[in-house]
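Anyone up for a design puzzle?
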């Protein structure tokens, strides 16, 4: 059991995450109904306001707070309890992040910032929305520094030793996060804030979008790497085995630092302000990320097979039957991984020059990120929640809770299959994303989109409702494990943090030499970005627009 003060810190982070999840999924439910012409909003509430809340609360707030809650717990468990300074800095980080979150949320809810979570210029929100965003990011940096500080203390006390795998992976993720946030901080502080408060008249749109996507792509890895940490470190323990290969795991993670940042242009393939050469270069670098992704897939299946065979699984696939399917902590993460197979393949499609033309800005993209962040990441976090909160509160995770956990996972799976499949198909047919319901003046082409078996309005509404039901079951589990479930008293009732052993005997030391990886990362960033961003500095600016 980790120190009580560290538990408190982690629990506060997780609590904020689930408040965001509650409001965010409610917004999602409304969206499904509005898009399908089944709900008309009152005049004071706007579709784009709700959609902004959904994107910000789920993709930014829920993920980030949950990730820090997980990191704080795992760092305290693997490196030992935090010292008073680390703890204080982590609380300051939490406070600053939360002030930013509250400020940005108030601006969205009061209708002053319906700019969607990408806040593309020249859409112009209240300046306080951007101040909220800046505080949010700076707050996460402060928490990150606390965790890095804790790690540095450990390294000093264990000279020449490799750090535990969990801590190494958390620090890798944080390094990537800090480098990538430089882009969003630059555009928010130097472009958006002066413009939104009226100190300057215009904004350089292409530059702001490029700085956003310099951050926006690694952002998806900031969500994904903590899920991978669970896959690498938690799953083997649930299977009763060790990490398949410590060096392979560390190699995959450092490759993510290198190849997740200099690739933002793959979100801007349709933009005229960037020449094809730079788009091409960044697309090539994008595809490099397939390497650590496949390393991860390989390690996972190797772990499954080894564990299944140790338990007596025979033949080519007999080991599959021996996996602990009745343990919701495992099954949830397995389903999450399964969703990532089509999710990852979709990512390769999106990043391809020509196919991007077909899917860009259509509902296909919405289908895509609901089977990447919306399920593989979110469901891994759900699978962690089942034991993480009881671990932190010292409460029981009873048999009936475990059953409820299964119902939650199954409903999320069904709801997401319905919703995301229909979104993928509708996108291919041509239906745009980020729109409230529009029949395009009853144009037959638009009407035809909704005639399919799973693309019709009823199926989609059912899918969205099942998802929301699932989200509410999860909220129930969270509230129970936080406040109401009986305290564990007997030894066997205590829920533990499943952290697998990892042999570092054969792991090369250079994998933990940060200067190498940070150095190469910056070299790649400069190669991919210096010239095209330099050219953008001369682009003319645009005045702001409020379209809502
Ligand atoms: C109850 C579950 C959910 C439902 C019913 C739902 C529904 C939707 C719908 C219908 C849209 C498309 C809106 C449009 O393009 O007009 C959307 C967008 C989006 N969703 Fe979800 N979603 C759910 C859960 C999630 C989760 C768990 C995440 C991430 C962790 C997520 C992240 C996003 C993001 C980032 C967008 C894009 C927002 C934008 O275009 O600015 N959603 N969601
Ligand atoms: Cu991307």
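Challenge accepted. My sequence:
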């Amino acid at each position: 059991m980790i120190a009580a003060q560290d538990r408190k810190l982690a629990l506060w982070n997780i609590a904020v995450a689930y408040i965001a999840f509650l409001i965010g999924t409610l917004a999602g439910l409304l969206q499904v109904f509005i898009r399908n012409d089944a709900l008309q909003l009152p005049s004071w509430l706007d579709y784009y306001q709700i959609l902004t809340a959904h994107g910000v609360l789920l993709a930014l707030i829920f993920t980030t707070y949950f990730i820090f809650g997980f990191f704080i717990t795992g760092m305290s468990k693997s490196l030992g309890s935090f010292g008073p300074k680390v703890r204080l800095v982590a609380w300051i980080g939490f406070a600053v992040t939360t002030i930013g979150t509250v400020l940005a949320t108030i601006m969205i809810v009061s209708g002053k910032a319906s700019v969607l979570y990408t806040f593309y210029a020249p859409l112009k929100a209240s300046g306080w929305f951007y101040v909220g965003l800046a505080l949010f990011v700076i707050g996460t940096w402060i928490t990150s520094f606390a965790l890095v500080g804790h790690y540095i203390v450990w390294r000093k006390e264990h000279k020449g030793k490799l750090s535990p795998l969990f801590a190494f992976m958390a620090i890798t993720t944080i390094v990537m996060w800090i480098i990538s946030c430089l882009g969003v901080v630059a555009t928010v502080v130097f472009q958006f804030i002066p413009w939104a408060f009226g100190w300057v008249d215009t904004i350089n749109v292409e530059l702001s979008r490029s700085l956003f996507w310099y951050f926006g792509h690694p952002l998806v890895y900031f969500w994904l790497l903590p899920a991978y940490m669970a896959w690498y470190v938690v799953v083997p323990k649930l299977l009763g085995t060790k990490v398949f290969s410590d060096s392979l795991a560390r190699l995959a993670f450092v490759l993510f630092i290198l190849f997740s940042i200099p690739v933002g242009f793959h979100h801007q393939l349709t933009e005229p302000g960037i020449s094809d050469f730079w788009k091409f270069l960044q697309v090539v670098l994008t595809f490099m990320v397939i390497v650590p992704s496949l390393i991860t897939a390989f390690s996972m299946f190797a772990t499954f097979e080894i564990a299944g065979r140790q338990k007596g699984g025979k033949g080519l696939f007999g080991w599959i039957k021996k996996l602990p399917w009745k343990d919701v902590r495992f099954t949830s993460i397995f389903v999450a991984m399964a969703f990532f197979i089509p999710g990852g393949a979709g990512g390769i499609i999106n990043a391809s020059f020509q196919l991007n033309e077909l899917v860009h800005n259509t509902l296909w993209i919405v289908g895509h990120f609901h089977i990447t962040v919306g399920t593989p990441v979110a469901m891994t976090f759900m699978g962690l929640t089942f034991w993480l909160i009881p671990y932190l509160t010292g409460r029981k995770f009873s048999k009936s809770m475990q059953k409820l956990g299964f119902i939650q996972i199954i409903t999320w799976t069904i709801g997401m299959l319905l919703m995301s499949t229909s979104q993928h198909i509708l996108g291919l047919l041509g239906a745009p994303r980020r729109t409230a319901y529009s029949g395009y003046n009853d144009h037959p082409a638009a009407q035809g989109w909704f005639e399919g078996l799973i693309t019709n309005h009823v199926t989609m509404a059912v899918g969205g409702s099942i998802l929301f039901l699932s989200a509410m079951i999860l909220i129930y589990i969270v509230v129970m494990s936080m406040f109401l479930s009986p305290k564990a008293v007997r030894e066997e009732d205590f829920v533990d943090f499943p952290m697998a052993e990892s042999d570092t005997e054969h792991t090369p030391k250079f994998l933990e030499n940060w200067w190498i990886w940070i150095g190469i990362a910056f070299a790649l960033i400069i190669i991919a970005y210096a010239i095209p961003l330099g050219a953008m500095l001369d682009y003319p600016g645009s005045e702001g627009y409020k379209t809502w």
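A detail worth pointing out: Residues 217, 220, 266-267 surround copper (II) ion (ligand 2) (CB under 6 Å).
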